[in-house]
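[Meeting: bench + compute handoff]

Bench side (C.D.) handed over the final construct sequence. Compute side (W.E.) agreed to return the predicted structure before the next meeting so the bench team could plan truncations. Sequence as handed over:
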Amino acid sequence: MDTRVAIIAIIAHGSGSAQEINALLHDYADYIIGRMGLPYREKEMNIISVAIDAPQDKINTLAGRIGRIEGVTAKILYSPA
């Protein structure tokens, strides 16, 4: 199974989405290399980066599911193949 290394950048407005994001990241824990979250209180948002090594379809699915949470944006940056 071919895997790709990528970063998923997540911006979440407000704190209501944190539990949903954490639940999804827990579901994909076997693929996650590491994660970092930064609260930006002045703007009432959280900035999260997730380093992941997984098949491309898994990465796309995770980012898509996170991006469908209300008030959340997720984008993927892939390493060169």
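W.E. noted at the follow-up: Helices lie at 18-27, 56-67. C.D. will use this when planning the next construct.
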